[in-house]
Structure formats: C-alpha cells, structure tokens
Amino acid sequence: MSVKVTLSPSGNQFQCDSEDTILEGAQKEGFILPFGCRSGACGSCKGKVLDGSVDRGDYQSSALTDDEVAQGYALLCCAKPTSDVTVEIRQVNGLKDIQVKKLPCRVESIEKPNHDVAILKLKLPAQEKFEFLAGQYIDFLLKDGKKRSFSMANAPHEAGMIELHIRNYPGGSFSQYVFNELKEKTILRFEGPLGTFFLREESDKPIIFMAGATGFAPIKGIIESARHKGIDRPMVLYWGVRTKADLYYYDLAQSWVNDRFKFIPVLSEPLPEDQWQGRTGLVHEAILADYPDLSGYQVYACGAPIMVESGYKAFTQTRALPEDEFYSDPFTPSVDNKATS
Ligand code: FES
C-alpha cells in the first residue's frame, strides 16, 4: 500500500510505500530530510506528525522521549506511515547532486597520534569520482552484513582520499580490528557519502563548533573546507576532551587561529602532569559561560550523544539559539551505525 506524505512547511508531497520509513520514502523521491544514524538512536531525523498516523517502530528512548511522543513527534528513520500523513520537518538543501556510491578503498596509512585514536587514510579508486560535502560520513560494509559509520575528517578538495579518526573503544569489534589487526594496503568496502552534517554556506552568521573527542573529525573537515573556500565568517572551535594527550591534533587546531578564528580546548579530567592552565569542565558549559546570547549564531556539534543533547537543550532553552541553527552529528556507539567517528 502506498500513502501520501506531505512535508510541512515546504508543502512538498510524495507517495510512500507503507513498508518504507518516511525517511526512505522521501529519499526515493529525491527529498533530503535531516538524518544521522538511520537507526533510531541519534534524534537527527525527528519530525512532528501534524496529521494522520504512523507506526513509530523501534527506537532508543534517549532519542525520542515519551513526552515527545505525546506531543506527536516521531523519528522518521523508524516511523512508517499507516495513513496519509503530514509531517513537520525542515528539508535539507545542498545535497541534491551528490550521489551515494558503494566503492572499494585501500588503506594507505594508519597513524596512532595517542593511545586512543587511529588516523586512517584511505585511497579511492582512481577512475571513480567520489563527491561529498565536508562533515559527511561513510559506512564501512563488513563481511557479516553489518555497517560501521565514520565521519570523514578531510575536505573534499583533497581528491582521491578519505581520512577517518577512529577511537579505540574497548569492546568495539571494528575499532579493535583497526587497532590490532588492520594493515596498510588492506582493501575495504564502503558506502557514502551519507548524513546531513555540513556547513550551511548560505548563512553569514558566526559559527561555534563544539567537538567532543574524535567528534573533532568532521569539524576538521568543515573548517579545512571553509578555509579553502575563503569563507571568513567568525568561527570558534571548542574541543572537549579528558586529558591533554587527547588533543591529538592540537597543533593543527592552533595553526587555524587568527583574528576570525578562535580555538578553545577544554579538559574535563586534566592530569597533574598536564600542567594545564586552560579551560576545564564540560565543553558545553564552557560555551554557556562565554556566550550569554546565542540568538545570532549557528552551532555545529559532534561527539557523544550526552554532550550534543546537553548543548542543544542548554543553548536553545537558556541562550536563545534558534532550534534550526543547531546542527549535530552525535555518535551512538551502542548500535551498529555511527560507531566511533
Ligand atoms: S534517529 Fe533517525 S537518523 Fe538517527
């Protein structure tokens, strides 16, 4: 059975097979809605059902609370329409011409800048054009049919390669494979580019980047791309990590600093030997302390869900950040997707 889905406020309509989620149905018809994990874990695809009914499917309660369900919200990567529906969700522009592909790649190098992070450089087939927007991610396609998602840390102008920052999660089977077994020249397969975490270039608002640990990866890609394109909106990068050793690209971030770009590292658990004189505490609290009013800003956040959610709530509820000026890419390590960035 196919039903009619209407997107609000755009008024765009499409027919959706009732076996498809609304996100899948929209994608088949060429409408791009915001999404991250595609598995009910991150909340990026949350929309409000204004009319009609949906089966909300399986999702994590941290991504959609009972209160939100009572208000009519649903996660469109899980929700299937059970009648004609109208859903309030903002559409994403800018991805129209980007093709999602399944490609092989070869591991070119594996660097370990500290005990916790591996930087993987992957070479793409020379004859294949792989286009993406800085900040998007890829899914590795594993032999057992599972997928593992990682954000791309490089900018698209570095053609022919992909850089990933992989965190060493104890118990994370793919990260253990990367840390203990993966060798240079190994061939892997991936699908991409995916996701809607990229710089909204049509805006001229100043930008706050909030990165947690390897959430630095897609933000690095966005910043390097913006620098390459000569985008000179005021930008500040807050990078929250536990200890000084976790700032694995400190020198690089420091090299971006100028009168339009500030870099503020924030340590939550500095060690005595760190002799840290800088900011401490939680990264979103550092932003709250520095900005009494965020009404004129855009915020781009990538890191653990708790960091992203805490930031979103605090910035929109106490600092007047417009809800649609908060862009995020939370990791959801407990599920197959968006494993470790
Ligand atoms: S919850 Fe739907 S994309 Fe993450």
Question: How are the SSEs ordered, and which strands pair?
Answer:
Elements lengths: L1 E7 L4 E5 L4 H7 L17 E6 L2 E2 L10 H5 L2 E3 L4 E2 L3 E4 L12 E14 L2 E7 L13 E5 L5 E5 L9 E7 L5 H8 L6 E8 L12 E6 L3 H14 L5 E7 L8 H6 L5 E7 L11 E2 L2 H8 L7 E6 L1 H14 L7 E5 L11
Helix pairs in contact: 6-7
This protein binds FE2/S2 (inorganic) cluster.
FE2/S2 (inorganic) cluster binds next to loops.
Task: Kindly describe this structure.
By secondary structure, this protein is α/β, with parallel strands linked by helices. The chain folds into three domains: 2-88, Beta-grasp domain (Ubiquitin-like (UB roll), Roll); 101-194, Elongation Factor Tu (Ef-tu), domain 3; 207-330, 3-Layer(aba) Sandwich (Rossmann fold). 18% of the residues lie in helices and 32% in strands. The chain contains seven helices and 19 strands. It has helices spanning 22-28, 66-70, 173-180, 216-229, 250-255, 283-290, 305-318; strands at 2-8, 13-17, 46-51, 54-55, 73-75, 80-81, 85-88, 101-114, 117-123, 137-141, 147-151, 161-167, 187-194, 207-212, 235-241, 261-267, 279-280, 298-303, 326-330. Strands 11-10-13-8-9-12 form a six-stranded antiparallel β-sheet, covered by helices on one side. A six-stranded parallel β-sheet has the order 17-16-15-14-18-19, with helices on both faces. The chain has a five-stranded mixed β-sheet with strand order 2-1-7-3-5. Strand 8 (101-114) and strand 9 form a beta hairpin. Helix 6 (283-290) runs parallel beside helix 7. The two termini are 37 Å apart. Mean pLDDT is 92; it is low at 334-341. FE2/S2 (inorganic) cluster is lined by residues 35-38, 40-45, 63, 75, 77. FE2/S2 (inorganic) cluster (FES) binds next to loops.
